[in-house]
Each structure stands twice: as C-alpha cells, then as structure tokens.
Amino acid sequence: MIPEYAHFSLVLALCLSVLLAALPLIGAIRGDQQLMMTARSLATGQFIFALVSFVGLAWSFAVDDFSVITVAQNSNSLLPMRFKLSAVWGNHEGSILLWILIHAGWTLAVAVFSRQLPIDILARVLSIMGMIGVGFILFSLLTSNPFERLFPNVPGDGNDLNPLLQDIGLIIHPPLLYIGYVGFSVAFAFAIAALSTGQLDSAWARWTRPWTNVAWSFLTVGIALGSWWAYYELGWGGWWFWDPVENASFMPWLAGTALIHSLAVTEKRGVFKGWTVLLAITTFSLCLLGTFLVRSGVLTSVHAFASDPERGFFILMFLCAVIGGSLTLYALRVPTVKSYVRFSYLSREFLLLLNNVVLVVAMLTVLLGTLFPLLMDALGQGRYSVGPPYFNTLFVPLMALLFALMGLGPRARWKSTSQQQLFRPLASAAIVCIVLGVMSPLVFPGEYHFAVALGVLLSAWIIVTAFMHTHSAIYSKSESTLKWRRLRASHLGMLLGHLGMAITALGVVLTSYYSSEQDIRMQPGDAVSSGPYTITYLDDGEERVDNYLAQYVRFELSENGKTLNILRPEKRRYPTQQNIMTEAAIDAGLTRDVYVALGEKLTADAWAVRVHHKAYVRLLWLGALLMGLGGIVAVMDKRYRRARSARAARTERSAALVQSAG
Amino acid sequence: MQRLKLFLPLLIFVLLAALLFGRLGENPEYLPSALIDRTIPDFELPELHDSAKMLTPKDLRGEPGLLNVWASWCFACRVEHPFLTKIASEYGVPLYGLNYKNDIVEAQKWLREFGDPYRFHIVDRSGRLGIDLGVAGAPETFVFDRKGRIRLRHIGIVDDKVWSGTLQPLLQRLRAEQ
C-alpha cells in the first residue's frame, strides 16, 4: 500500500499547490490579509506531502517492491542499498519527483526565511512558486507517474540500474544540479512579483540576491560534479563534451552568472532594472528549456536515458505558459522611463554591463550551437551536428574578453572612475601578468604554446587584481595597517568566486595542452612510461562483487623506482542488462592525474590498456568548488540579515492594526 | 514605440517554441553525427574470417551500403540480425559488419550460429574505429554513399519501420546519385 499512499500524498501536494497558487495571490490583489497569510502554511503543507511522496518511492526501492514499474525497471535485488536509493532519481519518473520535492523545499525556504518581506510581496512570490509547483506535479501525475503498478505479473527481479549511474558521482550530481535549477525559480518568482506590482526597486534586488547566489552556487558545483563524473566514469578521460545535456545546464549557469552581477548593480545603483528582470526570467526559462531538451527526446545525447514525445509536449506547453506569460508580462509592465542615474564609460556599472553582454552572448552561442541541428533540420537543410570546434572557436575569445574585464570591474568605482584611478595601479599588475604569461610555457616541456601564455596571463590577471582590490578595500591609510574587520562577506564571496574562475580557466588551459595519452598492449611484467612515471603490469584477476563481475588488472605506479600507488582498473560485466563498463583507475594529484583504463582483453594474459597523463586537471573542479563557496559566503553578508526594512515594518504594523480591528 | 521593443524577447521565444513544436515526435534515433557527409575515418584493420587480410576505407567504396556495428555480446544485435539477413538477401543491400570490441572466436561462433549475411567484417578489437566514428554502443548502423561518405547514423536496431521509412529511401536516392 505504501506506493498508493505516496501517490495519494502527491495528489494532496498538488491540491495544496493549487491553493498556494491561487489564495495568496487573490489576497494580494484584494488586499485581504487573511488570504495572504495562508501562503506560509500552504507552502509548508506542500513540502510535507511532497516529502511523504518521495520517501514512499524511496521505500519502494529500498524494499525491492518490483510491482512498481519504476522500481522494476531501474533497480535490482542485488544492487547495494546506496544505489537502490540513488536509483530513485536515476530514472525519469523519480527525477521529476525529486524535482518536485526540491521545488517544494525552496518554496518552504522562502516562506521561512523571508520574515522581513512585506506580506503582499511574499504572498505573490509564494503564489508564483505554487504555480510552478502545480505544473511539475501535474507533469508527474499525468505523464510520468512513478507509482504505477505492474499487476498481476510482478517480475521476480528488477531490470537493474544503468551501470553508468551506479556511482557516487551520480548519487549527488542530480540533486545538486536540481537544487541549482529549481533555485532560480525563486529569482524568477521575485521578478514576476515585482513586475506585477510595479515595485522594481533596490529592495527587490536585495531580496533576490541571496536566493540567486545560493542557487548559482549549487548549479556551479552540480555542473562540476557532472564533469568529474563524466571524466572518471565514461572512461574516455574527457571532462566536457559540449553535449546537449551539458549545454542544458551550462546555459542557465551563464545567464545566472550575468544575473548575479546585474542584481548587484540594481541593488547598489538602482539601474538596469528591466535588464535584471529579463535575466531572471531568462535564467529560469533556460532551466525549464534544459529540462525539456533532456526529457523530450528532441535532442539525443550520451546522457539521455528517457525520452517520450508525449512528455515533451506537456513540458513544451508548460514552457509556453511560463516563459510566454512572463515575457508578455515583462513587455507590458517593465518601466520604460529612463532612469536618471548617470554613469560614465569608466565606471563599475558600465564594466558590469559589458560583463553581462559577454555572458549573454556566450549563452546565446551555446544556445545556437545546441539548437542549430534542429534548426537546419526544420529548414530542410539536412542533419547537422555542431561539435566542439564550433563551441571552442567562439567560446575562447569570449572568455578571454570576460577575464580581461574581470580584472577591471571590481577596481572601478560606481558612477565614474578617472583613468588614473583605474589604470595606474593596474599597469604594474598588467606587466607582471604579461611577463608571467609569456614565460609560463617555457616551464613546461614541449613546444611553446601561445594559448598557454594567454591562459596563464589572464588567470594571473584575475588573481593579482582580485588580491590588489581586496588589499585596497581593507587597507587603512590613516593607520597604515590592514583592517580585517573591513573585509565584508560579500567582498570575500566575490574574491573566492573570481579566484575560482581563474583556477578553473588555468586548469582548462593546462590540461588541454599538457596531457598525453597512449594506447598499448600490455601483459604481466610489461612497463610503460608516462611523463616521469612508470606503470608496470603486476597481475590480473576476476572478482564477483554485488551485482557485477569484475575483471581487473593491477598496475604499479612508480617514479624513479619508488612505488607511489597500485592502480586497479576494472572491466565490469553487469549480467542483468548485459552491459560492460570500464572502471578507470586514477592516481589523483593537484598537478596531474595518472589515469589507466582497460580496453579489451587481447589474449589470455594481455590487455589493451589506455594510459592518460592529465596535467592539472584537478584545478578545473577545485576552481568550481571555490566559485560555489564564494556564492555561499557572499550570502553571509550582514546586510541580508539586517532588521526589517522600513517598508516591511510599516506593512506589518498596518496588518496588525487591521487584524486587531477585525 | 519604446514598448514594442520590449516584445522582442517574447518574439524570439515564440519562434523558438515553434521550432521545438515542429520537432516533437520526430524520431530521435537518428542522431546527428559529426561525421555526416564526411568520409569514413581512416583505418587499417583485419577481416574477421581472414586475419591476414587488412581492410581500409577503400574497401567500402563503389556502392552505397550499410555499415552495421555489432558484437556477440550485444543482445539487441541478435534481435536485428534476422532482419538484416532478410534485407541483405531480398534487396541485395551491401551489408558490412564492424565487429566492435568483440572476441574473435566468440564473434565467429556467433556468426556460425545465426548466419552471416555480411560481405565482410572489420574487426575493431580496441574500439578505436568505434571512437573515431562516435559509436555510442551496439548496434548502430551507418549509411554511406558510393564515395564512402557517411550519410546517416542510426542508433539502435534496424527493423521494418526503420528500413522502409528511412534506410531504403535513402539508399535508393544514393544509388541515383552520381
């Protein structure tokens, strides 16, 4: 009965989200306090029932209830418990339920942590969140019900989880990514609420910023985890494929990054309001579009594991309602009055505007590249596939431009900065970075790569200027000392974010140019050298583990005759799905990874072996973690916890009056 | 006038939505491949039944045909095998095998058991050619023209629907091409 209870609980969650979508909004329009006050409890109720429903599905997986179709298709009694639980979202139906749960969680978080918001704004925001909830719960119930039963012929055992997904990376990657995706619905809801009331002001930007930062941080780390997973699990040693599914998560990231910066300008200076609203709508729209592209089967990719035109139709209708509706509202309601705040070409506003332009162009580049095959096919021009060459050609110059700006932006002042103020202190920094950049390729063996010089130059530029900027922010001229108290959380967050970006960029450049790979035939006793290391074939064997059979080879990794590690790549055979998986063995280090994967067994005692030497590949993910951390740290800033704003206090007071009068 | 400009994002979205609507329900199995309209990547690999004979892309030129990626470990290959046998014998379609990441003895045994409608099999033990072709798994079928250029990539099994709906018309067109 548990699946039925869980199913029923989801229906109840739907009812509550319908009420949440309607009641507080009606209250806000009519000025009815009591109706507006329902928002918080409805949000809580929606979350509780979504949680019950999710736990119900997880329970069905945990106890191997193969009468539930989703369980039968994606689990197996031999599967270890941790994978049984992660199998809950390792499939289409379950991942939508996870999406619903996370959305309900964000809605609840807004309800709980927005005490300082005026009640009418909060009511509208939660109503909009409720509408999105209605869409997704309906999607689940109507097209992808995870609780459907398979009676009377209950299978004896399940079909097993796709072996690619039986991995720690895939346990945590989707939840993090979804938290990021769905988190942008908060910024979206705030934007729509502000549009509908016409109160697009810096208070609105201040309320939106922490939510956007947290969502962005989760998305950043989620994408990085996905890349890490592809790196070690797909067995090719690649970390980014410009695959449609990757692009689907990368586009909201680019738009979200632009949004974070544009929100800063709107909060501090009260300009770019319309643009910020548009970015908030765009970012969430791209999250929905990503879901559509992945779930509808319009685009196929290595990652896609479920596609169905009927589901695609539903998501597309939902997409049209949400995006079409919000863009119409935007066009009708956004104020066209020119703001009278002026700023010069050398000001932080202008540099941040440039940053936004570059990021949006980058986002459109990815969007075009992802949809180009569809477009050409629709125009009858045949089937095309846009590969990495397109993305790399366009993306690298854009990023170079962005990095150049990143050094200037934080140093520039609001309104206007004189050339002297901006450029003089940076001149020496620029010279240092150019020298560093030009010299850097000489440190590495092999020929001189200009791309490496440029990459190091730009990364150094970001790092050096970020520290200079921090120094000048906390340096007290009168006392000639550093005042660490002056270092604010929001500044520290920016510092971490920019440093992370620089480190990721450095990792990308270095690993692209200084990695090597070789395919060789090896048998016991054979040795191969890779960089400064020697890899020696020790022995091989077979082992039966849980739900698969592993053939493994043990290699000794040594440097100058000293053993560093024993590497044990595997070839795993999963009997249930007749799948064969390559499990690479990696000796990880900050400056390099040694990556060994098994190809085919050539004879009784010889294997085809692929050995990668991946230079500095860890920097890539380390940088992303720093960026994510930066986003979270920025939220700790005091001003987001400051006592309620005057307006909020006033509204609450009048609310209290109304209530006591009533 | 000022207001009209603000409808631009909406307009872009409407066009995008129209494009996506048009694509719904299209069969996603025809994955666009980076190699469409390019020649088959270079290789020099042995033949399955005669390992002394080395095959190169030249052996695939002259006549439009199908290159089928298969392996004895691949269950779906067994499903599509009878149909491939049928189209090879009934329509005389030039059918070539790419024996992908497979043990040679196993592969030969498999063919003895189920029959061998292929003209020859390229043995890709290491999966290297598979990587160059962008093969995601078995089975996959590539359609190439008389010049040895890849014209279509089909993922999954070839059945009657795929054959009469896509592969056969395409092969007819390619035969007419000069």
Walk me through the structure.
The complex is a heterodimer of chains A (662) and B (178). By secondary structure, chain A is of the alpha+beta class. In chain A, helix 5 (92-113) crosses helix 7, helix 6 packs antiparallel against helix 11 and helix 13 packs parallel to helix 15 (450-474). Chain A has 18 helices and 12 strands. In chain A, strands 4, 5, 6, 7, 8 and 9 form a 6-stranded antiparallel beta sheet that branches. A 4-stranded antiparallel beta sheet of chain A has the order 3-12-11-10. In chain A, strands 1-2 form a two-stranded antiparallel sheet. Chain A has helices at residues 2-30, 33-62, 69-74, 81-86, 92-113, 119-143, 168-197, 202-233, 244-269, 273-296, 309-333, 348-378, 388-408, 419-443, 450-474, 489-514, 617-635, 646-661; strands spanning 475-476, 481-482, 516-522, 527-530, 533-545, 548-559, 562-567, 570-574, 579-583, 585-587, 592-603, 606-615. Chain A is flat, with a radius of gyration of 27 Å. Chain B has 178 residues and is of the alpha/beta class. Chain B has 6 helices and 7 strands; from the N terminus they run ααβββαβαβαββα. Chain B has a 5-stranded mixed beta sheet with strand order 5-4-3-6-7. In chain B, strand 4, helix 4 (104-114) and strand 5 form a beta-alpha-beta unit. The longest helix of chain B is centred in the C-terminal third of the chain and has 17 residues, at 160-176. Chain B is elongated and about 75 Å long. In chain B, 36% of the residues are buried. The mean pLDDT of chain B is 82. The interface between A and B is large, with 48 and 40 residues.
